[in-house]
Fold each of these.
Amino acid sequence: MSRALRILIWLMVTLVGVLALSRIALDRGEQISAMWLVVAAGCTYAIGYRFYSKFVATKVLVLDGQRATPSERLENGRDFVPTNKWVVFGHHFAAIAGPGPLVGPVLAMQFGYLPGTLWILAGAVLGGCVQDFVILLFSVRRDGKSLTEMAREEIGKVGGFVAYVAVIGIVVILLAVCALIVVNALKASPWGAFTIAMTIPIALLMGLYLRRIRPGKVLETSLLGFVLVILAIFGGQWVSQSSSVAPIFTLTAPALALWIILYGYAASAAPVWLLLAPRDYLSTFVKLGTIAMLALGILAVRPTLQMPALTRFVDGTGPVFAGKIFPFAFITIACGAISGFHALISSGTTPKLIRRETETRMVGYGAMLAESLVAIMATVAAGMLQPGTYFAISSPAGIVGQAPEAAVATISNWGFPITAAGMHSLAQAVGEQTLFNRTGGAPAFAVGMAQIFANSLGGQTVMAIWYHFAIMFEALFILTVLDAGTRVGRFMVQEALGHVWEPIGRTSWYPSILGTSALMVGAWGYFLWQGIKDPLGGINSLWPLFGICNQLLAAVALCVATTIIIKMGKARFAAVTVVPLAWLVAVTFTASWHKIFDPSPRLGFLAHAQQLVNSQANDAARLIFNDRLDAVVTGVLIVMVALILMESGFEWIRVLSGKKEARVKEAPFVPSRFQAEEQA
Amino acid sequence: MKRMVQIVMATLREIFDESAYARFLLRNGMRSSRAAYAAFLRENEAARARRPRCC
């Protein structure tokens, strides 16, 4: 292709992207097609990948195709395996794609579709993708070392310690939030509860089938599991209509929370092959298939966005969570824009599979673009709901009232008209008794997704099946995050406590397994319990806390990346990581300040505790304690990240002033045989 | 098209650990069996249990 033609094509892409973004950003008072979001995303990603990631790859990181990667040098057929770039891309994407990019944009929809969409696009292209890319490359150049190891080696002991504690902190809060989302989606829903309960025996059956009947046939077993899950969805419909069985599966939030806590403990202590691995296979199978189906569904239906670009709640008075667009939209949407958790994946399995250094661009930067597109799809699913319906589903009873009439009146007064009859019809159409006060984002997303699927396949008569398919899809992989996360956290706790008393560090010693599993489950279980007892729905407190943790971990990752870039002698290009780092520091520190000290009881933990001091309510003392605990957790995290920022800053000054030799701790250069083979 | 299907299948086989099992059999000169799969699971248990799933 000639240079002139290439320039012309990229000019066209830019013009179409600008047109789509203008349509999204400037239209007021009329509904727009969701396809504008898809087109804007496609053009932004194309330009970001083609130009920005290439700049980072060639000028900043100077990717070297002649340098052997750890998968080549340390190849052992087990952890280090040179793998086709597309296969690594799929593997990496499957690991980073979780409930975050689906739930965050749905919650942030209370501001309208515009803030979330712009943050997803800009955050991913300039922040999240860069973070995933540079951390992956730096891990590849260090034999696949983890983020915490790189922080310790490149920044210092404080950096390593903070990264370690931040990881445990984020895992605990993340698991509590995930469990809370599942509780809110399944409470008083016999259909959903039955379907999800059935995934446990299905996973056990898959584990036994894999081990005893068809060893190693994982794809076949996952397909079998998927068929059984679909049967469970139909079984759930029968259960919900049976007057004798339905009450057994009609569970309150506390009952569900206890079941999930028990499940988390059992999954953490049981053999991996029996429960954790088959559930992981099953949820990955369903996840990849459903995301692909959702993309096709959006293209087929091309829905119109019912939500306005901006709502009245940009002023911080939103019912879903309290706080203004800045900083709260930017911590509510993490995984679709920038997520610190990805740095753990980018410095985990993926660097050990990379065949050529030059492929880190496609895997690190490219997979995050795909994740960002998932967030855009979630934005479309939530944005196509009638605003009144969205707020009725996503607002807690403590804000809009417990009774349908009260909720309808409150939401209609906000300027988003709905009727109790309309909500009742919708609940019946999706096979639920009610859709009011189903906070957490998952039910609102499931209703939107069910509408997309029903409009493209089967019509309104199968809305209920699609809704419960969507709930199953979300709950299944949220619970997979929960059991995998509990086990990862357990290993980290064992590792840390092993320094205090050696036997605890033995990962196969059962008393240690049971004890540390209890510690881990107890930690997230406590926050979960706090969430379900929270009169404001729990999400109001826990999701911002999770967002703060996640973005603080991203700040740690960007500190590590900036330090390495400066030590590489590329300080003039350090802005590629310093700018997103500065933004995240501004966002997380401001959000933390508001969450701790804001005078509004809906927003500030301490103000809420103060409001309860004179309350006569039975649980006032516990709520006050919880508020103060949340404030302390937020404060401790902020102090730790401030420490790593200072330690990084001092390291940068020492290196830039010449007081310290700029030496990176990379593995020595070894020429790649792959490069030589290709040239031959 | 054929190449695309091959890559998709290879990706799925990697994600679902079928490739890892095939490499294990090759490395140890074993044929697929219950015992071989049990040995593969034992070898991979620690690595698998430490593999985080993102939010």
Note: The mean pLDDT of chain A is 93.
Amino acid sequence: MADAERLPQPVLQAPRRRRGRRSSVRSWRRTDQLIWALAWLAGIGVCVVVGAIVAFLTAKGLGALSPKLLVTRPSPSVDQSGSGGFLDPIIGTLTLAAIGTLIATPLALMTAVWVVEYGRPRWLAATVETSIEMVAATPDIVLAIFGLALFQFGILAPLSFRGSGGGVYGRSFFAAGITMSLIALPLTYTATRNGLRSTPRQLREASYALGKTRAATIRRVLVPRVRSDVATGATLGMGRIIGSTAIVVLLLGATLQNSSQGSVPLLGFLRGTGSTLTSYVLENSPAGEGNAPQKAYAAAFVLLLIVLVLNAIVARISRIGDAAGLSAGRLSL
Amino acid sequence: MSIDPLIIDRPEGPPAPHVTSNTLRAVASQTRPERMRLSDISVFYDGVPAVRQASLSIHQGEVLALIGPSGCGKTTLLRTLNRLTELTPNASHSGRITLDGDDIHELEDTRLRTRVSMVFQQPNPFPMSIFDNVAFALREQSRRRPRRRELEPLVTQALQRAGLYDEVRDNLDRPALRLSGGQQQRLCIARAIATEPEILLMDEPCSALDPRSTAVIEKLILQLRSELAVVIVTHNLQQARRVADRVAFMYLGDLVELGTADQLFDAPREERTRDYIAGAFG
Amino acid sequence: MVVFVAQRAWPTLSHEGLSWLGSGGNVDNQIGSMANTSSSPPASAFYLRAWPLMYGTLLTAGLAVIAGLVISLLTSIFIVDLAPPPVRRAMTPVIRLLASIPSVILGLIGILAVVPFVGAHLITGGEKESVINVIQLTGAGLLVSVFTLTVMVTPIMTALITEALGSVPRSWHEGAIALGLSPLRATIAVSLRAIRPAIIAATALATARAMGEAIVIDMVSGGKAFSPNPADGLIFIFEPLRTLASEIIDQAEGLSEPALRSSIYAFALLLMFSGFMLSIGSRLVRRPLRKYELSS
């Protein structure tokens, strides 16, 4: 507006921020004062607790940790210093995480795609959703028991450890890994499903308008787009797998060393029993058989580090995903 | 009829006169005491001025309309009146605002907002029953917990003044969110006037409503102004014509012109005002 | 899955019937004698009274969830209203970290640090003497179990509640402030009321996790299937106990013995059943609250 420009605008500088009088805490009702104080207490308390846990674990764990521990195998020994390191448990942890995630991720992806994109018949989709929710709410032990019962069946016997008497125990890396995937499944599924749901409809419509079939759309357009959500869910699942002890104890035998079954190299390993960092910690604490608190601390520390790293990865991925998703969203509109 | 002081603790202010006539718009200004005065108010967001040195006064018994194109600062100006601008972290201001002679920044903000109430553009009733919505501020105000018996007459009165009582009297415990848009907005008005504020601020209260509800609420505004002062922000010029006694036109943060409704609409002094009213820009 | 576990548990239940849920006798001895029976045991071998375990489960989970609920509500209020912005930004990853700490680590700290502390400093010699003929007080017991469970459960609830608080429409909060409430009061009176369904769901989830948590309890609860008795006075918080879940994990070796096996499956069935009831219960409770929500 030419008129507006003509008039000279007085120059105003922004003053320092002046705050009006606020109602002070003193004047509140008694209950509110109490809540205010308690809330502050809670907030600070939580920070303190977290700090204490991390600090404590680091102090004790770092002190006991040495590179040697990471690469030697544990051996049964009465003397603490001679009982070796925890290479086996580390391998065990990684193996289980790998198996669990490898099984869970494609399954979760396919299920999520089916539910969101197809979803007929309705009752089936609802049932799937509800069952996944129930599995998510089931505590680890129950899943472990279930897995145990499952793998004791004759059909699945080749997958597990056989006792010397030929009895099928139902324990092996296979068994544990497959059961672990049940833990990771709901997490990956939910993340993927939310990612799919939040993609704007325009994206799909644009793809159809270009003549692509539904399957191709899913494959080429949607799946790449939710990559970060899938990754987030998979990493969360991995985190839970790594942190789970109950399943390991029940389904992996929690032996100190990883012992193979049979002669075929990889297969034999997977059929055998073993341990992970979590069961190692358990065993070495006074609650288990071991008597090596330092080792337990060291292993716990390593475990904590892994979890921290995984958490950071999740944070990174979801931030990258947000940024990419936002810009892609704007583009598609 | 004053509020039982057990329910509302509030320092004594000038009593609101109970004029019930609502036909005449041209009432002599001696019967309209000044309630609020703004002196050289400027508001800054992150150092950028949104309102520049605006000065005006607000009188009981009249409706003051703030008009102007989008982004001209009228909503910001409105929100300084109940210090709602303080909710924005990077906002600062200069100038002085008084309510009945007291600088509002010397008052407690919670107290201030019971004397200067606000109704928003989107009706925002709480997820509670109708009764609980209206009684909400009353309950929060008192030192001790008032019983429902004590609150009922006040709630009824507020609903009556807001013109909603007859429609909901059969069941006040219905969820407020089940009401229609117009009813919800009237509920928000009832909620705002339940504490018998001296000033009622309205930020485009009808822009989310259909024409019929708008007419109902405009009639309501004319009725309410006899008991309190109403400041309404609107981008609808016809609405301003219908309800306002005095009009302030703002443009790009400046208070360009201030006058009675007849003056401003029929014989605007400033060229910018003329152009805006003629629809040259919006 | 349900069918499976149920089938395995059937022998126990069929032999004992509902009295299986009752109390009486020392569970440890009962389990012990079970392990010693042969593979085709007589009916009497199924004798087990599960009440002490159930009591332990309910007690620990219940107390932990109650404590956790209070703390997480307060913490959420803190995060949303009271914390200065840099602290607020920092707290979200902190809570998430706490939520993802594997339970073994918590149990480890519990057993190696907290238990000895409690045993040495909080329990006096006199108190130990007073119950020595029934049970040994070592510091591992109810108090530490509840404490550790609370630490485990609180972050999850806090994260859920904070997220729910963030999704409340801002217009309500602003409207409440415009009516003359302070921000804290506005949050309590409006937002917390508005997210009641989410709070209930979070509580149900936390309870399910707490009830099913075996590893932590196994490490810090004292290993004796004892029922802490409030009638003992304040000491009772120090008494050891066992829960269903920790019993399962402890006896996992014994799955070849039919009697023991079906007992264990029965425990699992009980846990599953209660989780199921929690889920249904929380839905039922939330339904009447729905009418106050936005119909979006």
Note: Chain A touches chain C through 60 residues (CB under 8 Å).
